[in-house]
Write a structure and sequence with these properties.
Keywords: Membrane, Transmembrane, Transmembrane helix
Largest sheet: 13 strands, mixed
InterPro entries: FecR (IPR006860), FecR_C (IPR032508), Ferrdict_sens_TM (IPR012373)
Distance between the termini: 125 Å
Number of helices: 7
Order of helices and strands: HHHHEEEEEEEEEEEEEHEHEEHEE
CATH class of the largest domain: Mainly Beta
Strand content: 35-45%
CATH architecture of the largest domain: Sandwich
Shape: elongated
Oligomer: single chain
Protein name: FecR domain-containing protein
Number of strands: 18
GO molecular function, one term: sigma factor antagonist activity
Pfam families: FecR, FecR_C
């Protein structure tokens, strides 16, 4: 106590020191607002006031440690909760919800997307597209065949994923064919499209088609648009195509199961147009082209004969 009293007296007498300054201000604040600070205090007065000051300091500065911990924990929890809320909100805003459209064999339909693009789906097709296009692109997924009329938007490219082949456009019309076991094709009717297959890229304009098979991406021009887009009007055009490819396309489009027996050579190729025909008319025409006859076994037509004409 004598040391504290000495530092206080030294400060009052003009000997300024950090310790004395701190003790003086603590001593000064120990008085009530209505209580006068003595100008001339005796040692006994100072001792008495210092004791009261010490007790006051102890009462004011003692803070339970657990209280500090709880304050820190509460602050950390508040920050964590805010972070979770912001992350959840961001995730919710960017989450994409898809709509899926499926056509069975013999079925055809069309879809209007959220951006106004019009899509026609051929038979045996699965098509998946966002209910709402978010972000910087409009991306859809195709298994089967579809014709696209894309709403123009230079700020949001439209991308069709068909297996390993991607087709990117800004606003144009084109046909994409991607059936299992067959080459993937993109045929352009209007505008310009960019195609990418593995490490290969190409740009197509009206009257050009790209075909991806194995590790090759090839392209060429065409003039008969019905061959690639006529299916929308119920027309199938075949030009020198293998018999198995023709039978797969016809079976899928008309919703029938047509097969050939071993007596019909797989090397046969067909060139013909099928339009507005019944199931039986289609089978009869194929038999004529293959120099064959057909028998029906349940839901399956079996074609057999001597070979191609």
């Amino acid at each position: 106590m004598s040391s504290i009293r000495k530092k206080l007296k030294d400060f009052l007498s003009g000997k300024n020191s950090p310790e004395g300054h701190m003790i003086y201000h603590a001593w000064y604040k120990s008085f009530d607002d209505t209580q006068e600070v003595p100008d001339d205090a005796s040692p006994a007065d100072i001792d008495r006031e210092l004791v009261q000051m010490k007790n006051g300091i102890s009462r004011r500065t003692t803070v339970p440690l657990w209280t500090s911990y709880w304050k820190v924990a509460a602050a950390v929890l508040l920050i964590a909760v805010a972070g979770v809320v912001l992350y959840t909100q961001k995730t919710f805003d960017t989450e994409v919800h898809y709509a899926e459209y499926v056509t069975a064999h013999g079925e055809h339909t069309d879809v209007i997307l959220a951006d106004g693009s019009h899509i026609w789906l051929n038979a045996g097709t699965k098509f998946r597209a966002p209910q709402t296009f978010k972000g910087d692109t409009r991306e859809v997924y195709l298994e089967g065949e579809a014709f696209f009329e894309i709403a123009h938007n230079p700020k949001k490219p439209f991308i069709v994923h068909a297996g390993e082949l991607t087709t990117t456009v800004l606003g144009t019309s084109f046909n994409v064919r991607h059936y299992t076991g067959q080459p993937t094709e993109v045929a352009v009717v209007t505008g310009r499209v960019a195609v990418q297959y593995q490490q290969n890229t190409d740009t197509l304009t009206r009257g050009q088609i790209a075909m991806a098979t194995k590790d090759i991406l090839g392209s060429w021009t065409f003039t008969d648009f019905d061959r690639y887009t006529g299916w929308r009007q119920g027309k199938l055009v075949f030009e020198d195509q293998p018999v198995q490819d023709v039978l797969q396309t016809v079976s899928r489009f008309y919703g029938v199961d047509i097969r050939v027996k071993d007596t019909v050579s797989g090397a046969c190729r067909i060139s013909t147009t099928l339009e507005s025909m019944t199931e039986k008319e289609v089978v009869d025409l194929l038999c004529l082209l293959l120099n064959a006859t057909a028998t029906r076994d349940g839901h399956v037509y079996w074609i057999s004969g001597s070979g191609c004409n």
